[in-house]
Fold this sequence. Notes:
Chain A is an all-alpha fold. Chain A folds into 3 domains: 21-249, Cytochrome C Oxidase, Chain A; 267-518, Up-down Bundle (Cytochrome C Oxidase, Chain A), CATH 1.20.210.10; 525-586, no CATH class.
Amino acid sequence: MSAHAHPVSHHAAAPQGFIRRYIFSTDHKVIGVQYWLLALAAVSVGMVLSWLFRVHLAWPHAILPGFGGVVKPEQYLELVTMHGTLMIFFVLTVAPQSGFGNYFLPIQIGADDMAFPTLNMMSFWVTFVAFFVLISAFFVPGGAPINGWTSYPPLSAVGAISGPGQGTGETLWVISIAMFCLASLLTALNFIATTIEMRTQGMSLMRMPLTVWAWFVTAIVGLLAFGVLLAACILLLLDRTAGTSFFIPAGLVFNDTQPALNHSGGSPLLWEHLFWFFGHPEVYIAILPSMGVVSTVLSTFSRKPVFGYKAMAYALCAIAFLGFTVWGHHMFVSGMSPYSAIAFSFLTLSIGVPSAIKTFNWLGTLWGGKIQFTSAMLFAIGFVSLFVTGGLSGLFLAQPSVDLPLHDTYFVIAHFHLVMGVAAVFGIFAGTYYWFPKMFGRCMNEKLGKIHFWFTFIGAYMIFMPMHWMGIMGALRRYAQPGGLAFLQHMSPIEHFITIAALITGAAQLLFYWNFFWSLRHGQKAGDNPWHATTLEWAVSSPPPHGNFEQVPHVYRGPYEYSVPGYSEDYIPQHLAPEQVAKAGA
Amino acid sequence: MHSRKTERGSGVAGLVLALTLVIFVAVTVYIFAANVFPMAPSITRVGDWIDSQYNLTLWITGVIFVMAQLGLAWMVFRYRDRGQKARFVHGNNLLEVIWTSATFVLFIAMGAMAVHAWSRVHFVPASSDALQIDVMAEQFTWNFRYAGPDGRFAPTAPENYSDANGNPFGINSNSKDTDDIVSPILEVPVGRQIELNMESKDVIHSFYVRELRIKQDIVPGMDIPIHFTPLKIGTYDIMCAQLCGLGHYQMHSTLHVVSEADFQKWLKQQEAENQQ
């Protein structure tokens, strides 16, 4: 029930003392910032790892710091595995959902905090520990895991017999991901309960900002997906440490070592099914919150209502639902029934429909607008371009026959980096430039923000477009070196091009760091509503006080009422009573 | 206070962004249209069908790509802030219905056309006279086994696996059938259907030959068949496409497609070596 009166909790005084306020805080805003900073730490490590393996791919004989000489094949695989794991879990899942969602979901629905603030704090700290468990894998004997972020058994299940990185490093990987899943499950519950129970008076479902819709739907996806991966991780951990055989079949022989392992009856395909039942929805966990941010930012800076608001909300739900029926398209060549591939193919192509609906409506939002090119807006427009480019290559991979030559090649790398990696990161950047004034009371520097955008936008395409062509020519992912294959050796000019683009684009991110930390202290004072926006977070001071609202807000209209004819301002906030809104000429 | 212009961004960014998108589209279309980075040429009929489906998909997605990116460029150019009033509009149900049903019909029709090639790879079993070859994948080697002159494969067991003794398939040492041919490369006659029966002895590997347009994971504990009919004599790379450990990138072999006569000659040679 949305209209219940608020309990008095937000009248309670804010906790005193640094540790209670900023470390073990139960305030959703502090937790949101903590998640955001955790993602910033993770993305920094993940990006440096990608530089290292990009340099290795372009210049295999280069001596890199910390490797004791030339990068070895297993070290290359460590870099790739840790890069993927950090980015997918600790950046793309953490920043847009747990970061922005924690900070803004309660404020945007007029609540004083999350439904379960203590649980919320615990979720963060479990995620925080999971991050360090993962990083510690670099420093254990045998090294970090080398199985890719997908960690397919039996390679990942049988221990050191299958090669380096399969000892303690892989065990830490499994434990870290299991902890991450647990924390994400609790966060998902919290988001769902908060959205259903704590909406303020007048905040009906169809008046929720699309960001709230996105966080809510993503939380439902997370609740259903992370539980499955958590179970799978526990099974894998048991296979590794307790001698079970969930994923290990009988009769395996490694490197002529007899007798064979003492396992029988397990199925490697079971892991693939469980993993991708999580793994595909995970793509939407990463991208849906950014879609919400982009819809909001496009509307604000076009000074127009979101085009097709209801269609946008329904499309989010459709993507989330269909997202659970398409995991098999990761397994067209896995050895599963080829008949099921047909079903997965049609379902996967169907998910292109709500994706197209969203794209058309974003264009519709820009159409007839009065577009203001702020840094946030540039990143939101960039998101649309990247989402289109990355989404369309998905139509190739959705067809099992066309997938045959492209599967596991750089074409796939290009596809998912553009559509869920870079696009989602653009959503995070758009959100950061947009909400920074609200979170910290000061604006980020717009000039630096724009330079940051141009380097990142052009750089992203220069890194990932050539990967499509490498994939079309047959270059396989997770190859440490060309390995004597002539056609791969001929691609070295493309490898050089990509690596140089990646280094420049990566270096340009320093502008963002500088802008962020400099603006915290020296940015221009923001005021309550610098963008003249309509949703509830702009009705309170910047940053919002503990408990968010002095009085329980009442919501009178939809979230994107821009340029309504007959009024003096080109925006009407959700919380203003009709009699408070100034008429034109009044 | 900054002026409203610098705070909100000027229209120049819109012009530059529109231009950037146009250049991006032009370069991308050129590279695909001129086929600057081509696929390896197909050497099977199924491969040709896959290629034509790939080309159809390239056309459909290409048209959408150009229209969407140029549409975006037009919007940011045309509607940059020049002091105009924004249109107050919440959407258009007719448009929603049109683009929803149009994309649905288009995507599903495209998917339906892709079924044909897939069914030829997977639904139609190999013909009974296909040349049978066993494949044993292991870290980080390919092994191929031919039945030999008697046309029968000798029985095997994992306990007998021994690369050191040249017995990667684990052929029973007390078996009377000793004429199986084991080879590190895949030698096949042109124009004849080949059926591979693929096994792995350790982790998941994947059989990949670009020119065959075939990629198939080999999962330990499963016996996975795949068939193809190569139509062009030549030498092609066999690669492992599924991460299998630190030597993954080195796990390759060679597919030799030769004339029937050359194939028989090769078989004889292998038999002679077996008897030594």
